[in-house]
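REQUEST ID: PR-0412
SUBMITTED BY: lab tech R.K.
PRIORITY: routine
TASK: structure prediction, single protein chain
INPUT:
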Amino acid sequence: MSQTYSAKPFLSVINDSVDIDISTPAQKRALSYASTIEMLFNQVMGSKMPADRIIGQYFRENKKHGSKDRRVIRESLFGLFRWWGWLSQLQSEQPHVTWFRQLSACAALEQHAWHDITQAWDLIAAWTPTEIPRTNSGSISDKLALFTSLSGLTACQPSDLLPSWFWQTCPITTADELAVVEAMTSRPPIWARVQSMKTTAALAQLNKAGVDAIASQYFPDAISLGHKSLNLNDIDVYKQGHIEIQDLASQVIGQICQPQANQMWWDACSGAGGKTLQLRSLMLQQDLQSQGTITSSDIRNKPLEELNKRVKRAGFNNITIAPWTSDALPVNPGTFDGVLVDAPCSCTGTWRRNPDMRWLDDASAVNDKPALQLDILTRSAAAVRSGGQLVYATCSLSPSENEQVVEAFLAQTNEFELVPVVHPFTAQLCNMLTIWPQIADSDGMFVAKMRRK
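STATUS: complete
OUTPUT:
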C-alpha cells in the first residue's frame, strides 16, 4: 500500500465506489481511525523505524486523541503486524477495500472489543458472507480456520506469520513450530521484578492500586503485572523504586550470573541498566550491607543517563558508570569476579512485543551480528579475574548469534571453560541455555556461562 488516505478522501472513495451509506458517528470515526492507522502503518514500513517510536511521536504531536482513541489506534496497528503474514495475502480490485478487509480480519483475529468501529470496517470490507465469524479460542489452528472462512484463502499456513528467513536462521523442530507461532502471535504479560521490598508487600500494594499482579512460580522476586496498559508513574511502588519492568526471560540472565554479595561485576553492554539493577538487587537480597559493586558500560550516552535515573529511583549504591569511548577496555583488566556481556543482536526473541520488527528486518539482522558479538565478547573477557565468571547473553533465538559465537570464542582461547546451567523453567541441565517464548509466557533469550580457569 503506497497510497495514504485522509479521512475525507476515504469517505469520497467509498461513496464513489460502493453503495454503502456511511453516516453514523461510529462509521465516521471508523473511517478516521482507518486513515490514521494506514498512515502510521505506511510510515513504519516506509521508514523501517520501530512502530512504538512512530506511534509515540504521533501521539505526542496529536494530543486530541483520548484514551479510547489511542487504544484503538495502537492495538489495531500492532495487530496488523502480528497477523501480517496472512493479512498481506488479502487482495481486492479496489485498494481501499483491501485495506478495510485487512483491518476487519485483524479485528476478528484479535477479538477487539470496539464493535461499533469493527462493524463499520466489516461493512466497507464487503465480505461474503456478510456474517463475520468469531472465535473465543486462542489456538492458532482456530485462528487459521477463522481467517480462512473469512477470506476464502486456503493456502495460508501458521508458518506464514513469521518471515521465511526466521525459519532459516532460527531452526526448531517441526513439533515445536506451532507452539512458537502461537507464542509469537500473542502478547506476553508485563513482567516486573521486585527490589528492596518483600514480594508479598509489593503485590498487596499493586493489587490495592488495581493492578492484576501475581507472583511468578519461578523466581521469588518476579511478578506478572497482567496485560493491561499501565501508567507506571501513577503506581507508588514503581515511583519509589521497588519494582522494575523486566521480562521474565531477561531475569533469567541475572539468576544465571548468581552474583555474590561482595563481588565486583561489570555489565559490559548495560544499555539502560535493567540487568545492572538486577545484579545489585540480588546482592542486596543476600546482605543488606553488601559491599559488592557493579560497573556499567555502553557506547551510547542516552541509555546510561536513563540508568542513572533508575539507580537513583531504586536508591542503590555501589553502581558506577564507565562508558566505552574507544576499542580499549573502559575498566581495568583481570579485576572482576563476573563480567556480563549482553551483546547487541537481532532481537528475534522480542518479536512478541515488537511484531513490526519481523517485517522490517531481513536475514542480515542475524547474519551481520556474529563478528561484532565475538569481538565484544573477546574484548570483555579480558576483564575477568582468574576463577571469575563470564556470562554471554542475547535476546536472539538464532544459533549463529548464540551457540556459534560462544563456540568460536572458546575455540580461540584455552583460558575459559563452559559451566553447565540448569534451565529455570524445565529443570534440565544445559551447556548453553535458550529460553523459547512459549515455555513460560515470556520473551526469548539465550545465555551461556563460562569460567576463567
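NOTES: The chain has a mean pLDDT of 92.
REVIEWED BY: pending
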